[in-house]
Specification:
This protein is of the alpha+beta class. Helices cover 35% and strands 14% of the residues. The protein contains 14 helices and 15 strands. β2, α4 and β3 form a beta-alpha-beta unit. α9 packs parallel to α11. The longest helix is centred in the last third of the chain and has 22 residues. The chain is globular.
Length: 492
């Protein structure tokens, strides 16, 4: 059973239904992997193994009676620590919340349980989910299975690391500025950032917060696009307050081969340059698609000023970050913003002012966002898919210095630490769906992921396109040394 842990959730569910393996055996297999291997990664930080074994045993008894709960009957899964699971702590990496025990399940947890999932526990996050690295003072540092000296990304870093190391069959993360997409890219797995509002996010919030946030979404992560599709089928639906009135009806794929797709390729941009090897991977992808008959352009883009796009994104995003701070913290943020010259349009200056954005100014940027949405709608009336980078570089080395002092090195040139959020913001600000898919390894042995973006609500279109493409180019690879149950890792 050395590679059993790397089979997809859909395939494992079939094995359980066919009684090739029991849920109890499969759950025990994953638990043993976590116990034996997770010390190296520190991904699954909030565990409920006794509860998982009890649920798995119940699932086997149900199957013995001919009862199947749903498509995930008996399948061991984990979710990001920011989701509530009744009886487990939800901390968001904040020490003040280390004893915040959830008394009810998040909406997505309910839906996965209804589908038969067995919850092993929850995976690590950065402090307040606010970093592209994953570490906090409660649970410590999470490492990348491809190289323990590097980060798995953030904020769904524990989710991606657990999938890449074969510690769970399926994951659910969340994303506002790349928090599903960057970890998927860093760890070589698949991730889907849905269209805003189509998956309910109740139970993914700090205590006392029940309203859905602007920009932020929750979505699946997996080792195959087929498992992303399975999870989407289970998770898509109206927010609880809307369920009596409407349900989203997402368009389904109408194409059968890559040659029917019109694909735009965007490999670099002057205000957010990317590593030359990632740009080269985009060129290679364009060549593959062209050879397979797709209509491809490396010049097509919507009629958008992407510098202005980034300004709108940063203002809307950073304005969310002070919504629940103390009055004292808000006053300090306002004093900092007022001390910055008005003509300073750097990313850090925009962030400082956005943290104390007035409602009047927020409405201005929200209105500007509507222009972006219309521009994208016009673009995707002609084009089916846009492929672009996820992040400037492959997985970065751990750096826990003060966040304002950090930089990234891109093609030998220092770059602002958060500058690469540009590539996440392209789809986030306009509510567009984006599917991240692995494309193989860089010269340094680290994964490179790209993102496929389409029009609002075309989630199943991006998933279908990625499914067709990765049949030609390959998909998830098991990180070297993680195939077997007992293995000593000496990376980095």
């Amino acid at each position: 059973m050395s590679n059993l842990a790397f089979l997809g959730a859909r395939e494992l569910a079939g094995k359980i239904r066919d009684k090739e393996i029991s849920s109890l055996e499969l759950t025990d297999h994953f638990i043993k992997r976590i116990e034996q291997l997770d010390d190296d990664i520190n991904a699954v930080v909030a565990r409920d193994f006794d509860g998982a074994l009890a649920t798995a045993s119940k699932a086997d008894k149900q199957l013995g009676k001919g009862e199947i709960a749903g498509p995930l009957h008996g399948i061991p899964v984990t979710v990001k620590e920011a989701f509530n699971i009744a009886g487990l702590a939800t901390t968001w990496g904040l020490p003040a919340l280390k004893d915040n025990i959830a008394d009810a399940d998040a909406e997505v947890v309910k839906r996965l349980k209804q589908a038969g999932a067995v919850f092993l526990g929850k995976t690590n996050v950065p402090y307040r989910l606010g970093d592209i690295q994953t570490y906090n003072d409660i649970y410590g540092v999470t490492n990348n299975p491809w190289d323990l000296s590097r980060s798995p990304g953030g904020s769904s870093g524990g989710s991606a690391a657990a999938l890449a190391a074969g510690l769970c069959a399926l994951e659910v993360g969340s994303d506002m500025a790349g928090s599903i997409r960057v970890p998927a890219h860093f760890c070589g797995v698949y991730g889907h950032k849905p269209t805003w509002g189509i998956i309910p996010n109740q139970g993914h919030a700090l205590p006392g917060v029940i309203a859905a946030p602007d920009l932020g979404v929750v979505g699946p992560m997996a080792r195959s696009v087929q498992d992303l599709e399975l999870a989407m089928d289970l998770l898509v639906g109206a927010q609880p307050l809307n369920q009596s009135g409407w349900q989203p009806g997402l368009p389904r794929p109408g194409k059968h081969s890559l040659k029917e797709y019109k694909v735009a390729i965007w490999s670099d941009y002057e205000i957010a340059p990317v590593d030359e090897e990632i740009a080269s991977r985009l060129a290679d992808t364009a060549e593959i698609l062209t050879k397979l008959g797709a209509y491809v352009s490396d010049q097509a883009l919507p009629a958008i000023d992407f510098r202005k796009n980034q300004e709108i994104f940063l203002n809307l995003m950073w304005s969310l970050t002070t919504a629940d701070v103390t009055d004292e913290q808000y006053l300090k943020a306002r004093q900092l913003a007022e001390s910055i010259p008005s003509d300073d349009l750097s990313g850090s200056a925009i962030a400082a002012r956005a943290r104390v954005l007035s409602h009047r100014d927020w409405l201005f940027y929200n209105n500007q966002r509507e222009y972006l949405r219309y521009a994208w709608r016009e673009f995707f009336a002609e084009w089916d898919i846009l492929i672009c980078p996820v992040f400037a570089v492959p997985a970065i080395t751990h750096d826990h210095s003060p966040i304002e002092q950090r930089t990234l090195t891109v093609n030998g040139v220092p770059q602002a630490y958060f500058q690469s959020m540009f590539w996440a913001g392209v789809s986030t600000v306009a509510y567009l769906p984006s599917t991240v898919f692995p494309t193989g390894l860089a010269r340094n042995g680290l994964p490179i992921g790209l993102q496929a973006i389409s029009a609002e609500y075309n989630d199943y279109i991006t998933l279908d396109f990625v499914s067709l493409l990765t049949k030609q180019t390959g998909g998830f690879q098991i990180p070297t040394g993680w195939e077997n149950q007992r293995q000593t890792h000496t990376y980095g």
